[in-house]
Write a structure and sequence with these properties.
The protein is about 20% helix and about 30% strand. By secondary structure, it is α+β, with helices and mostly antiparallel strands. The strands form seven sheets. Strands 5, 6, 9 and 14 form a four-stranded antiparallel β-sheet that branches. Helix 1 packs antiparallel against helix 2. The two termini are about 25 Å apart.
Length: about 300
């Protein structure tokens, strides 16, 4: 290997490991981010020079991929009914903040996340995440509750009060009450549809669906992911079955970052960076020796 090649090899190693430190730093920075998924840097070597006798010499390292790890994070109990955690491999499906309230979002255009910190929007009727992305139901519609419910004469019209509960399959129980203090507990039956009684036909669930190949998804920030050709596309938005796939109300899934592992990776990456720096220093010293011989 020439001195120049040695220097290029050292530079490639320094650049790759510097990016590795960025990935580790991002993991550590998001250790308390709800629904965050850990990332790791994958490297590959570069073989480009033949030395004869079926021998090859490497020209350093390159970044192969930043891989996302979708292991389950630990759960944190909360006091908010609309805080949801998934026990299983699925994802919540969200529409963008500007998605029309009355238009279905396709599986290919939805955002996917494990972060279930959902709240009512400014209207007090729509279910959104902290950034305003709209939670979808199994019909692909943004979840919006009916403001009023008419039980029929002579009862007074009842107004939406709050989300009373969400079960393990994503059925949303809603509380309505009239001016006389009479109340009803009903279930969400779809965007633009009047709520129905528990157990009745027409109940619509919160979407919770599995992605064919989650590591193939692309991070969009805000703990959101979008689909790619590598990830595959769900055939349809489905809901948790309540057994191996469950929604847990009053819970949030924490990030899956293991701080001990990340610090070990940081030390290893720092040493690799220093070793590559030493390679450049040694190659430079060898160059100086050659120049001195010429003189």
């Amino acid at each position: 290997m020439s001195i120049t090649s040695a220097m290029y090899t050292g530079v490639s190693g320094m650049l790759a490991n510097a990016e590795g430190i960025n990935v580790i730093g991002n993991n550590l920075a998001n250790v308390n981010t709800i629904g965050f998924k850990d990332s790791r840097m994958l490297f590959s070597d570069m073989l480009s020079t033949s030395l004869g006798n079926s021998s090859q010499v490497g020209h350093g390292v390159q970044i192969q991929k930043v891989d996302n790890i979708f292991s389950q994070g630990s759960l944190e109990n909360t006091s908010t009914v609309t805080d949801l955690a998934i026990q299983g491999d699925g994802f919540f499906a969200l529409g963008g903040p500007s998605a029309p309230a009355g238009t279905a979002v396709s599986t290919s255009n939805a955002y996917y996340t494990r972060a279930g910190s959902f709240r009512l929007d400014n209207s007090g009727l729509g279910l959104v995440n902290p950034d305003g992305y709209k939670v979808l139901d199994t019909a692909g519609m943004p979840i919006v509750f009916q403001a009023t419910f008419a039980p029929g004469a002579p009862a007074a019209v009842q107004n939406f009060q709050k989300v009373a509960g969400i079960d393990s399959t994503g059925v949303i129980t809603l509380l309505y009450a009239d001016v006389n203090g009479n109340s009803s507990t009903l279930c969400y039956a779809g965007n633009g549809t009047a709520p129905v009684a528990a157990g009745a036909a027409g109940i619509v669930h919160i979407a919770e669906t599995t992605v064919p190949n989650p590591p193939g998804m692309v991070k969009q920030g805000g703990t959101l992911f979008t689909l790619t050709a590598q990830s595959g596309t769900p055939a349809a938005l489905t809901f948790a079955n309540g057994t191996n796939e469950k929604l847990l109300s009053n819970n949030l899934e924490l990030g899956n970052v293991d701080m001990a592992t990340e610090f070990v990776n940081m030390i290893t990456t720092q040493r690799a960076y220093s070793a590559n720096s030493k390679t450049i220093t040694t190659a430079d010293q060898m160059t100086q020796e050659v120049l001195n011989l010429i003189r």
